Structure formats: structure tokens, C-alpha cells
Amino acid sequence: HIPAFFCANETWIVPQLKDMIEDSVEWIMGTQEVMQGQALSFGESDSVIEIMLIRHLKGGCQDPYTWTVPVYRVSPIEIHTQGQCIDAPIVISIVKPEGGLQFAFEVDGEKTSFSKSFEFVRTFSTEGTYPIQVRTIDSQGCQSAQDAEIQVFAQPELPIVEVEVGCQPQPGNV
């Protein structure tokens, strides 16, 4: 089975084909021969993969089949955060997404499932730097993940320094 397309950073296992009677097969990926059962990965730089299956028939004849398979990748997204204080909701928003994308969010080991939401809200009870990950899945089913960090700050303490009682119509000062 040859997929109609590959996702970038996906792994494909080259199918094992049992040799026919006195026949043998070989797989060619681009210009290189690959082994049956080999795991192949397709990176961000790949756009099209040419796959050839050559069946060597009895008597020296060859029977080739060729496929041209596109490689899709999920475009990067922008991740914005707001409200970075303890016990204040932090909004993680996804900016200018492509149509058809779905998103999932992970922070502090907690994951959400994929949804079409462009915003995720989280509250932290302690200060610190937290890694977050936004995963995307496109309409083709290709996935990618983008990492970012959220810095959460403690709420500042504002002690009352001086209080003066005022009389009407003069206001007091704090």
C-alpha cells in the first residue's frame, strides 16, 4: 500500500513483498535503493517523494511501477500569551491560523484533546517558567508541535505606607 501523501516528519515502513516464484523485487526511493521493511522518514525539506517498485521477472525482464507522492507539512503558527501572574487566568491564543487546522494544548503534563479553539485558558498557583506545547493537526491529518514558555510572576505586595484622615470637602491621602 502506497499512501496518497506523506506528512513531514512521518515514518513510513517500506512494505515487505514476498518473492514470487523465481522473481524478486526492489524498492527505489528517489535515486537510492531501500530495503523492504526499512523505516523511512520525510523531513521539512522534502516536498515530493518518487517511489519505484521494480519486479525482476524470470528471464531478465523488469516490470517497474512508479509513484510520485507529495509531502505535506503544517505551517507554523504564532502563539501569544497574556496575563502572566499567579492566580490570574493566562490566555494562550493562536494567531492567524490556516483554515481547517485543529489545536491541542499541553502544559505541566496536562493535555487537551484537539479542537478548533484558538484560545486556551490556564491558571497557575505558583510562580515560575512553564513549558507549553501547542499541537496542530490539519485537514490532511498531518500533525506538528510548537513549543513555547510562559513565565508566571508573583502578585506584587503593596503595603499601605501612610494613611491620613481628611475632612470633607478635603480628601484624605493613602
Helices and strands, with pairings:
Layout: E1 6-7, E2 10-13, E3 24-29, E4 32-34, E5 39-42, E6 48-56, E7 62-72, E8 78-82, E9 90-95, E10 102-107, E11 110-111, E12 119-122, E13 128-137, E14 143-152
Parallel strand pairs: 1-7
Antiparallel strand pairs: 2-5, 3-4, 3-6, 6-7, 8-9, 9-12, 10-11, 10-13, 13-14
**Major sheet size, sense and barrel closure:** 5 strands, mixed
Q: What are the segments in which pLDDT stays under 50 over at least 5 consecutive residues?
A: none
Instruction: Report how far the terminal alpha carbons are from each other.
Output: 77 Å
Give the strand tally: 14
Mean pLDDT: 86
Which series of helices and strands comes N to C? Answer: EEEEEEEEEEEEEE
Structure in words:
By secondary structure, the protein is mostly beta strands. It has strands at residues 6-7, 10-13, 24-29, 32-34, 39-42, 48-56, 62-72, 78-82, 90-95, 102-107, 110-111, 119-122, 128-137, 143-152. The strands form 4 sheets. It has a 5-stranded mixed beta sheet, with no helix packed on it. Strands 11-10-13-14 form a 4-stranded antiparallel beta sheet, with no helix packed on it. Strand 10 (102-107) and strand 11 form a beta hairpin. The radius of gyration is 29 Å and the shape is rod-shaped.
